[in-house]
Specification:
Layout (H helix, E strand, L loop, with lengths): L2 H11 L16 E2 H11 L4 H12 L11 E2 L13 H4 L1 E2 L5 E2 L8 H11 L1 H7 L1 H19 L9 E2 L14 H4 L26 H16 L13 E2 L1 H20 L5 H14 L3 E2 L2 E2 L2 E2 L12 E2 L7 E2 L19 H9 L31 E2 H13 L3 H17 L5 E2 L6 E2 L5 H11 L3
Antiparallel strand pairs: 1-2, 3-4, 5-6, 6-9, 7-8, 9-11, 10-11, 12-13, 13-14
Helix pairs in contact: 1-15, 2-3, 2-5, 2-15, 3-5, 5-6, 5-7, 5-10, 7-10, 10-11, 13-14, 14-15
């Protein structure tokens, strides 16, 4: 069977009739940024189905504009995944049960690429006119409700919102959180994946406590006393890329794109504050320069937060930002010993030389296919085609040899986490189209 046919089989097998689950075993519902990557791949099989994937996700959008990170399927047992709908206690006005937190905003980029895959079908279905106001509401929520530091960047309030759950970048901030007692919840993830690959019980207890506090304050961003609040480079870089995509969508609809281009410009300038020593770093908005140990840099006088020292894949993802002033220095860091671009498999999720590096555990070292796709897009934008082609070839070989693994060991390429994973198949399809 060809690689394209195998990837197609994964997406067809994980299709539920209106959306695609990331994994039948580990993730049996619809996840936000997964669906965006899935649509990017689906557009090569069926642009209409890619549109439906995104439209299904937007059907779970809240009245305040946020797109929750999980849309729960009523066809799945309520206790099949934890935290499930009974924990989150969140239902949209349309009756969809969801989580209360968010994930990185890849959606406008996915919508624009989906439209481009078959513009005639998109126009026939009225795809862009229907999704554009939803995307505007989503970005408006982020920029107005989540600028918790007052510096023009969007903050995450839970590690899950970054999509990079147990990244070492969150360690210091999480250490301030008293975990929920282990006997107060039952994990389901370790039923389907090795505990050595997954976050620890201690981290999971802290995740649960953060989510419960947000829930108990009715997911009110102004009222919740967030113990965890950070400006994340990847989250904001993806928002910038999506603002550029919204500008393209606006133009296609005969609307003025100026607002989106200005937003992208403002975000790009604000993102620069997170750059130091050749890499973008998260900014911990609840830490002070006086107590931060080994911080990568301090905030300006009177401004909240310090840059955390951990170097992660999040700090490289700004390579996708058009016209990024720091691109040359960032590319040099990617190629250096810390991330080994072109020397190890894909792009490791954490600094290979860092003290918290673990080659098997989730976002603490392994290489992921979706972030490699983002780096590939950045390299292509920068006209680094040889490096982009090398990364693409590595990704395709690994997807084939690992049966579309969730992530891989950066040194030997062995599969980790779940297999038959949807976004791995999706980005495989997209990169196969780049021949």
């Amino acid at each position: 069977m060809s690689l394209r046919s195998a990837a197609k089989q994964v997406l067809l097998g994980n299709w539920t009739g209106h959306s695609t689950v990331p994994s039948r075993s580990l993730y049996p519902h619809q996840w936000s940024w997964d669906s965006a990557f899935i649509a990017i791949g689906l557009r090569h099989l069926s642009p209409r189905r890619a549109q439906v994937e995104l439209e299904s996700l937007f059907g779970s959008q809240w009245s305040d504009g946020r797109i929750p990170h999980i849309s729960f399927s009523p066809a799945v047992a309520r206790d099949a995944y934890f935290p499930g709908p009974d924990f989150w206690q969140a239902t949209t006005t349309g009756g969809v049960e969801t989580s209360g937190i968010i994930q990185p905003p890849v959606h406008a980029l996915a919508a624009w690429l989906t439209h481009q895959a078959d513009e005639a079908e998109s126009v026939r279905r009225g795809f862009l006119p229907r999704v554009y106001p939803k995307l505007v509401a989503w970005h408006t929520y982020l920029r107005t409700r989540r600028d918790l530091g007052g510096r023009g960047l969007v903050a995450i309030v839970h590690p899950w919102e970054s999509g990079m759950d147990n990244s070492p970048a969150w360690d210091d901030a999480l250490a301030r959180v008293t975990p929920a007692p282990l006997d107060s919840f039952t994990r389901r993830d370790t039923d389907h994946a090795s505990p050595a690959d997954r976050p620890t019980d201690l981290d999971y207890g802290r995740y649960v406590q953060l989510a419960a506090t947000y829930r108990d304050h009715q997911y009110d961003d102004a009222a919740t006393p967030f113990e965890f609040a950070l400006d994340d480079p990847a989250f904001n870089a993806l928002l910038i890329a999506s603002e550029h995509a919204l500008a393209d969508i606006a133009e296609a609809l005969g609307l003025d794109p100026t607002h989106h281009l200005k937003a992208a410009e403002e975000l790009t300038k604000a993102l620069g504050e997170l750059f130091t020593n050749g890499l973008f770093h998260a900014r911990d908005l609840r830490a002070s320069a006086e107590v931060a140990s080994g911080s990568a840099g301090s905030a300006e006088a009177g401004a909240p937060g310090v840059l955390v020292p951990a170097g992660t894949i999040s700090g490289l993802i700004p390579l996708i930002v058009p016209g990024l002033p720091q691109a040359a220095d960032l590319l040099a860091t990617a190629r250096g010993e810390r991330f080994g671009l072109g020397q190890v498999h894909l792009v490791p999720s954490y600094d290979l030389t860092g003290p918290a590096f673990e080659r098997e555990r989730y976002w603490r070292g392994p290489s992921w296919f979706n972030t490699a796709w983002l780096i590939h897009r950045g390299l292509t934008t920068l006209n680094e085609q040889d490096q982009a082609d090398q990364l693409r070839d590595d990704l395709l070989k690994l997807a084939d040899s690992t049966d579309f693994a969730e992530y891989v060991d950066p040194y030997d390429g062995s599969p980790r986490g779940a297999q038959i994973f949807s976004w791995t198949a999706a980005v495989t399809l997209d990169l196969l189209s780049c021949r």
